[in-house]
Design brief:
heterotetramer; A: 326 residues; alpha/beta; 7-stranded mixed β-sheet; 12 helices; 14 strands; globular; C: 351 residues; Rossmann fold; 5-stranded parallel β-sheet; 5 strands; 42% helix; 8% strand; binds thiamine diphosphate; binds magnesium ion
Amino acid sequence: MPEVTYLEALRQGLWEEMERDDRVFILGEDVGLYGGAFKVTEGFSQRFGAQRVIDTPISEAAIVGAAAGAAHMGMRPVAEMQFIDFVSCAYDMLTNYVATARYRAGLATPLVVRGPCGGYVRGGPFHSQNPEAAFFHTPGLKIVYPATARDAKGLIKASIRDDDPVLYLEHKWLYRRIKEQLPEGEEIVTPIGEARLARDGTDLSIVTYGATVWKSLEAAEQLEKEDGVAAEVLDLRTLLPMDDAAIMRTVKKTNKVLLVHEDTRTGGVAGEIAARINEQAFEWLDAPIKRVTAHDVPLPYAPTLEDFVLPQTEDIVKAARWLAAY
Amino acid sequence: MPEVTYLEALRQGLWEEMERDDRVFILGEDVGLYGGAFKVTEGFSQRFGAQRVIDTPISEAAIVGAAAGAAHMGMRPVAEMQFIDFVSCAYDMLTNYVATARYRAGLATPLVVRGPCGGYVRGGPFHSQNPEAAFFHTPGLKIVYPATARDAKGLIKASIRDDDPVLYLEHKWLYRRIKEQLPEGEEIVTPIGEARLARDGTDLSIVTYGATVWKSLEAAEQLEKEDGVAAEVLDLRTLLPMDDAAIMRTVKKTNKVLLVHEDTRTGGVAGEIAARINEQAFEWLDAPIKRVTAHDVPLPYAPTLEDFVLPQTEDIVKAARWLAAY
Amino acid sequence: MASRTRPTTQSPPLPAGLTREQLLEIYRYLRLTRTLEERLTALYRQSKVIGGLFRSLGQEGESVGSAYALERGKNRDILSPLIRNLGSMLVMGARPVEILRQYMAKADGPTRGRELNVHFNDLELGYLGQISHLGDMIPVMAGITLTFKLRGEPRVGLVYIGDGGTSTGTFHEGLNFAAVQRCPLVVIAEYNRWAYSTPPEKQFAVKDLVDKAKGYGVAAATVDGNDVLAVYQATRLAAERARGGAGVQFLEVKTYRRKGHAEHDDQHYVPPDELDWWAKQNDPLDRYVKQLVQHDWVDERELSDVDEHVRVEIDEATDACVDEPLPQGETALPGVYANPRAAERLWFRNL
Amino acid sequence: MASRTRPTTQSPPLPAGLTREQLLEIYRYLRLTRTLEERLTALYRQSKVIGGLFRSLGQEGESVGSAYALERGKNRDILSPLIRNLGSMLVMGARPVEILRQYMAKADGPTRGRELNVHFNDLELGYLGQISHLGDMIPVMAGITLTFKLRGEPRVGLVYIGDGGTSTGTFHEGLNFAAVQRCPLVVIAEYNRWAYSTPPEKQFAVKDLVDKAKGYGVAAATVDGNDVLAVYQATRLAAERARGGAGVQFLEVKTYRRKGHAEHDDQHYVPPDELDWWAKQNDPLDRYVKQLVQHDWVDERELSDVDEHVRVEIDEATDACVDEPLPQGETALPGVYANPRAAERLWFRNL
Ligand SMILES: Cc1ncc(C[n+]2csc(CCOP(=O)(O)OP(=O)(O)O)c2C)c(N)n1
Ligand SMILES: Cc1ncc(C[n+]2csc(CCOP(=O)(O)OP(=O)(O)O)c2C)c(N)n1
Ligand SMILES: [Mg+2]
Ligand SMILES: [Mg+2]
């Protein structure tokens, strides 16, 4: 079985869907001959032609709006944001037009907006964002955030096939860092809305997604070795709709929860998860729900600052120890 | 003491600040001779001239961006969104440019973005929104949301005087519905960041803001009369930064919390509050934190639908009873 | 009927390649639009219309004339109307009873009470309702027409934008995108003197909207918006060019908004005699009727027959729906997703 | 020195109202820009520059020429540079050591490691760093220049936008806003053939950027961006017009981006001999030097003196900061608000 990176897995998923379904097409800035800023669509233009891999002007609102129009007509557009930070320019279009189209007016709007997000790469405040919280509040959208190569592939395929608009967040720190053996020939489709148990444990649960899945796994290893604490790690994979059942399962099993995300704290997704656990499993809690997140600042550029602001493995370890001892 | 509406109180506050400080100016669509879609700036253009009450093109991003530029130069701009729903078009400008300016670059950006928000008025999905959750996740912004005439006045004055950018949310259902006696001559300035105890109680705490403060007070009356339950009502007034101390005070007093907001549930502000209570007062909780919110749908137009989707007094009563009995 | 009394050979040549029946049909749509809006005004005063009421008085000509120039039928051309393009929707096949139901938020309305005024669609018939955020429909229509082009379908799209709406970023991004892609899109820019209370001088620094087309490299023209047949002809030409592969066509229609932004607006900002002049000297229906009659294309009795039919039609439509129920509250919940994960719970009502 | 050997009366008239000293100063800024970027490239290869490196090779002329046309000093004109306007910032008074520190994320850099490359400001000196989101600085500069106008200050603003950046909604909204308000704003639109890998044909359907000005009702002109003095003169004229109350001035500069979008970009999409032609035939420094020397405005030794001084200056600046520390982690926290409610807690590190 060949070993593929997270980025290559995503690329494969996109490629296979383009081969399978000629309604699928790609649009975005520099996605054509250049192959995209991170080379996710490298070779696509050569294979599928300029009609199906469309270089656009620097117009995120138009990219998303045009994708919506095409989706209404039965196409399956995949819109790339060069960096996900620029999806903020399409905020109105995505939340007001796209997300409400079915509810308001019965319009089918199957589209995918995808792009590189996340920090740990010294990208500074505008090339490192995690935009999930801004869109998490939008009924009608789905949001997926793969942490593994397998899910990078499985979720892009599921997103393209889904009949709802999906925001697909891919972590640029994982692009080339994560490798996995993926079977050739097997069709990998990760169901949207299902979390993944990334590590079994009994003493406490770490609920997380994206890059911090890996930090959490590292922390869990360390806890096991150094403290004999067995931490369970739940990788949410889909943020909207959220897999409450999987969350409650792990809470009810370990009775202690640590919520971890890379995004800033106030208004982040962890708040919603905390509220849901409270509502659905309050009596099972043996300790307060804890959060490990970024600090509430724009993400700074200097490595020392970025490392300080973003959650690190040792932060997770520390919080988990506190919980374990509670 | 004259009785003034919420809208008139806001108007007075704006007017007084314009009189007091000639760096203050207003810009927005139809704010000049027309006086704004809801007549908040009626008469301002006549008094202060077209240079200080500027009618703009339909360009929310430019309105907010230009306000930022003027603020850098020492002005105190107040930008009106005709309906707050359109602030989504300035999402990038407000979150990326305005909110980060001080942190990134030490730029002073004292500006106010204000506009009518909220439902219960049959405005349909695009004239009824509550945008706080989208901006609540933005370090660098402040968000205020008055529920009373006094605070409508006191918070607009505080917002204009604040050295940080403030999103001032005014509820259009309250505009002419709420009246209050306000002393003439007294300077009313409501400190940003301080919640208000709207009603004293001992059995449970309702934490809320905006229009649902009134629904909560109504519910509390009913609970008192019908159940002998004494509900405390905390009006947050400022959402960002949040008054954790006031929240924890009431939680530690009553040990049961109901979070109420008009905004949709998933990703709403209540999630963050739940997480904070959990972190800061877990051991004081005698029952799960409950939420009463809108359903997770775009807000529909028909009165029957809107009333069903938005939280009503009876919903609060019902949830409070459940909590009281827990 | 009337035509029998005068053999067609004696009639002057018919304009714009239209038949007599078509001329009458255009008249019918004009009258239908105006009468329907008058009925809506009456219902608004009775508080039966729930939200705001937006009139197109004085602009019926450009709406009807431009829509009439499209290919209609199942899965043909598609237009995206604004609040003042009720006429365009009627031409594309929206029925008065749907409009009435929608304004009154009836359970059986096209959006089952979810959306207001003309915000609804029938993509097969060829109209896509706007959302409130001005400008957003331009990128969306760019995407629809991009699809026509990608698939090689001989269809065009048409999108309206107000003088005020041209100031939005989405107008710019969408028009530029469509221009680069040479989408078969007709953009109708409505110069109607007002954007709410804001006059063009405060909205842009060019004189005419057509000047804006120059920045996008698209074909452009201006037409008298209150001359129905001129609008029809100009749009027809634009649509055929777009259909033929000539890319985006920009058409400015000069017209005038004779009512306030919505019914609550008292128009105090309007110069006193302006309204009067447009009502008396430049009403699109009056002008059209004069043309029809002066050229002997139809006779007046035919027109009053239409008026009468329209009145009856609107009466019947009103009677059919005015007492219909509003939707049941619970119907507010489903349909947010095509594939919801599971039945939604009624959280707080389910304790 | 050199001037002593030839009395000025014998010199040909100096161009554009500039003195010999000014001509040399312009040369110094050009050389400083290029040399500083070369140094940054070296530091980038040594991994001392932390993020991406953006070069303005071939565009130094338009940056320096346009900025040099502004009134400089304390609280005079203000410009907002893009990543390829390092030269403009240097002209306004940014110091090479600040640029070096910023690129290397040093604690003593102008943003103390918070922001990257040229994203920093000194509003008193007259430069306002961009944010990454293209187009956003146009509305902001509209607001700055609106303030100049409201206060009656004789100051102008200048904002740069790339050929790609003109496709953004904020470009449109900001330019239109400034045009209506007749803000004293000069917009420099840089046609440099590329937006990342995207050529103008895929970015817009007009031929030249100056065509876009027509949609805004602003004065517009085009200038050869690689002719420093022409850019200086055109900008000077535009700035003086804006200062005089003539409203927004749009100036297209024709130039060419000779390096990739950033250092990592191998430019495989660039036609083979294009780079060569621009390097050999149309380098702004070469052209300027030729002008200076051919007209005998300065002599070559003066130029090599400048080169030498610049080299020393950059060496010293590099030495001064290359080994400086990065900021301490905790310094990441303060300064989000002018009036924070209370000291921020280090939540999860404070258990
Ligand atoms: C992005 C946005 N901002 C503000 C509004 C509020 N608004 C609704 S209609 C209108 C005026 C529209 O003027 P114009 O485009 O000329 O259309 P007209 O009413 O003349 O048909 C405004 C400002 C809106 N709908 N969308
Ligand atoms: C709104 C937005 N979308 C996308 C990007 C990513 N991006 C950065 S530079 C660039 C190309 C810019 O081209 P141009 O404006 O011509 O400037 P140049 O690089 O040629 O100086 C792109 C697409 C961005 N910075 N902002
Ligand atoms: Mg108009
Ligand atoms: Mg360029």
